[in-house]
Amino acid sequence: MSRPVTPPIHDDTALRALHAQALQQLSPATLARLRSARSAAAPRHTRAHGWWMATACSAVAALALGYSFTVNPPTTPAAPTAAATVDDSSDVLDENPDLYVWLGTTDLAME
Questions:
Q1: Is the pLDDT at 17 greater than 80, yes or no?
Q2: pLDDT confidence of residue 62
């Protein structure tokens, strides 16, 4: 299997010279039609103001929200006292002595 032959890479000045030569060979009527087609295909900027306005309003809202947090920082609720949060679940182990019997019969307690 052979590789496809790639065309030689021309430098920029050679390509510009080829382009200028091609433009000289076109008739003025063809050039006029090409220019009118290019201007007709150019993108129109009709809705650019709407995007700028939406972006500006979003930026103002974000700045106002950020400023409101710096002026009045939110207060954190008081932490509950330690005595109220202690859960005494040691009575669960006292209720079921089978756990201690099972631990005594296995080697898990020694590891």
A1: yes
A2: 94
